């Protein structure tokens, strides 16, 4: 059986390995021989979406995998029950990879080990970004300033429970990101007057989950 597998062409092996979602299993497969290692690299290069959610990964392994998956458009490194160990160091290394300028979606949801330093480094290079989830993190206005200055294509952003973000950061974001369609502010410590100000800048902006308590007669459901 092993001999039969060895006879398979590299393209077919890459396709088979692309069906493996466990990074641990991919690492083991990659260690079998040079041909299999190249096939694993090819399988990663074919991916358009990469998710570490549900896996226990550290800075080094995450950056290595993202570097190999240079065609991805969506990157999800959200917190998982296994305790994702990615820090600012990991975000810095990911920011240097080939794919970062082409990323359309990034999720850092619940990553308590990251700060403005890592987020700023990442978003500054993610100029094509359209969707960002930084909910449940400890970022401040500094990250929003960087997003506002670097991610002018941003359409949706989730700031769920980002309690260190203030009115100043939100206003800067909405002022500069004219393509912004939706913003999730659930659990933030921002006065209602701030949201009225945001709507005066961008009347079509969907602010979730704020309701007609704003006095503007609109209801936006929680997504």
Automatic annotation (TrEMBL):
Record's GO cellular component terms: SCF ubiquitin ligase complex
Signal peptide: none
Gene3D superfamilies, sorted: 1.20.1280.50, Ribonuclease Inhibitor
Transmembrane segments: none
InterPro entries in the cross-refs: F-box-like_dom_sf (IPR036047), F-box_dom (IPR001810), FBXL15_LRR (IPR057207), Leu-rich_rpt_Cys-con_subtyp (IPR006553), LRR_dom_sf (IPR032675)
GO aspect biological process, one term: SCF-dependent proteasomal ubiquitin-dependent protein catabolic process
SMART domains in UniProt: FBOX, LRR_CC
Domain F-box: 8-49
Protein name from the UniProt record: F-box protein
Record organism: Canna indica (Indian-shot)
